[in-house]
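Tutorial, part two.
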Amino acid sequence: MTLPTIHFNGTGADDLLADNRAAYNAIRAAYDALRKTAPHGRDYYPQSEEAIQHAVDEYRARLTALHGVMAELDHIAMHLMGVK
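Running the prediction step on this input gives:
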């Protein structure tokens, strides 16, 4: 991961950290909202016996993707706090 370098002509660490935290909080809110969309078998059984498992796999992939973004933002925040 390419991390920002704090220097005189660049954006200040406080501003970068504030923006990073805002992005993290927004992704976290999306993650929490997404968790409420977990598939339920009653919504998939008319399609096929396998449909619910496919839906669950896709749901988990979405959660994993958002979790990955949060982990990256956390890594950037830790870097920014270390260079302040």
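Residues 34 and 44 are 18 Å apart (CA to CA). In part three we will examine how such features are distributed along the chain.
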